[in-house]
Each structure stands twice: as structure tokens, then as C-alpha cells.
Amino acid sequence: xxxxxxxxxxxxxxxxxxxxxxxxxxxxxxxxxxxxxxxxxxxxxxxxxxxxxxxxxxxxxxxxxxxxxxxxxxxxxxxxxxxxxxxxxxxxxxxxxxxxxxxxxxxxxxxxxxxxxxxxxxxxxxxxxxxxxxxxxxxxxxxxxxxxxxxxxxxxxxxxxxxxxxxxxxxxxxxxxx
Length: 178
Description:
The longest helix is centred in the first third of the chain and has 20 residues, at 4-23. The chain is 29% helix and 26% strand. By secondary structure, it is α+β, with helices and mostly antiparallel strands. It contains three helices and six strands, in the order H-H-E-E-H-E-E-E-E. It folds into two domains: 1-34; 44-172, Thiol Ester Dehydrase, Chain A (Roll).
């Protein structure tokens, strides 16, 4: 009986490791995270072009996407004084819009120009005031399925280790026509 608890813990650990390897979250035996299970289908320039075509009134503000790698995306939004709220920090709606945009483009980066994908959930955590400066946005794809995609988004203006906000964004993917 005394050995059952350690054996159960070992069994649970091995099952969790095998499940993580199957999902592509860790390499076999390495313990480090890998993002090779997703393939990039649209580059940063192609994503910016798709955004400019889909949202023609967006102007130069849609030239946001800076880098796309498997499972990850980086955006940069230049600062504009119209983003400020009373008190001198960047407003929440601006940050939420950028989190939503990051979710939208990370889905398209990995599935192609799927313009009809829509936000089904956006949970935003404001961690500290976003100081007036260029806004950095990094997104990581957590799940990409036939019907939905989930990503984690971090936003900062000062330094990556001082995020102003974090969001979990879920996108409902467009269903193919019957």
C-alpha cells in the first residue's frame, strides 16, 4: 500500500509527458518547449497586405505585423497621442484592440487568409499602466483546431518582462460552405 502513492505519481507524470509530446509541447526527452507542430502559411508582409485589403480604411495603422514564426507572432503599433486616456496611460480599448488583432492574424498566419474567423472570447488582464510609447504585442498559439483557435497575448511598452496587459483570445474559425 505504501508504494501505491509513488507509483500513481510516476504513472501520472509519464502520462502527462506523453500527452505533452503528442500535443507538440515538448520534444521527446528534451523537456523544452517546441513550436514545430504548426506551419506558417502567411508571412508578416502577406498578413499586412491581407489586413490592408480587408480593412481599406485602416490606413498605415494596419502595418502592424513584424514577425511570424511557427506558433508565434509579433506586432508593433506606433504610439499616437490619441491613444491616451486621462492620466497619461494608453487606454484599455487600444490594448484590447491590439490583443484581438494579434489573435486574428496569428490564426491567418497558420491557416491562410480566413477572413471570416471571429472573436468568440477575449479575456484581458490589465497588469500595469501602458506608458506612452510604441506598443509591443506578442502572441502564442495555444490551440488550433478545425473550429476554434486559442492564443495567449502579452502587451508591453516598457520591456517584455514588464507587461502592461495579458489576454487569452479565442477565435471561432469560419465553417466551410456546405
